[in-house]
């Protein structure tokens, strides 16, 4: 079992604490929170050991799970890596691209492993279909959320859209060519609604929309590729796959046949995978333990987390921002 400590005992931090306590792959040593009152409260309520000194906790563990506000990610990760500790760090990896690149250098220098908490990579709907998504040429993503004050200190791109940025980068094997985006501030000082069009060098185009002031929640992405349409509902954990193949010479009564202007006939058929129930946060944490124990590359490496941040910051910098 890997000795693990958690930095940050907010909403998500408490979830991590509970799951790490339950996991057979970790030995939860304790947690640190800069708010002493909150730290003592969480310790009293759940029984976790509270460290009021961050350095003492880092020294006592093999793995540091960083679930603090984004602004403190870099300093927490730097302290941990320099003590030779593996780090799991919530998304976005850091506040700036320069900080993220510094962590890549530190990771290599001290020979540790790092994983970024892009939890949608472990969503069972996405994992059930990821290997079927091959060379998509058009992607449409909508991530809409009802208003929640938590997270409004950063643009909606870093709060919500970055989930879809990471997922898209994981299936599009091409470099970003051009980005056009716009953002609107409604309640927050930073944009609450954003739309981005990402063009890749291989011709793929991704159109992403994110909002944190929606009247309903939606987390859905659609992938269009040759002879296939794939819809992934991250919220409902459902997948729809519509494929096409050459139509048979003798079509059955219930076969769905399309014919284009050139007279070519295609048969439409459905191929929906089974989706297993899981806890995506537990899966990502345990996959990191496996990467450490087996000396393999984490599912979402620090480099991939950096690439997602880089695209997110490019979107923000290209905003034609307006306020209502």
TrEMBL record:
<dbReference type="InterPro" id="IPR036291">
    <property type="entry name" value="NAD(P)-bd_dom_sf"/>
</dbReference>
<dbReference type="Pfam" id="PF22725">
    <property type="entry name" value="GFO_IDH_MocA_C3"/>
</dbReference>
<feature type="domain" description="Gfo/Idh/MocA-like oxidoreductase N-terminal">
    <location>
        <begin position="2"/>
        <end position="118"/>
    </location>
</feature>
<dbReference type="Pfam" id="PF01408">
    <property type="entry name" value="GFO_IDH_MocA"/>
</dbReference>
<dbReference type="InterPro" id="IPR000683">
    <property type="entry name" value="Gfo/Idh/MocA-like_OxRdtase_N"/>
</dbReference>
<dbReference type="InterPro" id="IPR055170">
    <property type="entry name" value="GFO_IDH_MocA-like_dom"/>
</dbReference>
<feature type="domain" description="GFO/IDH/MocA-like oxidoreductase">
    <location>
        <begin position="156"/>
        <end position="216"/>
    </location>
</feature>
<dbReference type="InterPro" id="IPR051450">
    <property type="entry name" value="Gfo/Idh/MocA_Oxidoreductases"/>
</dbReference>
<protein>
    <submittedName>
        <fullName>Predicted dehydrogenase</fullName>
    </submittedName>
</protein>
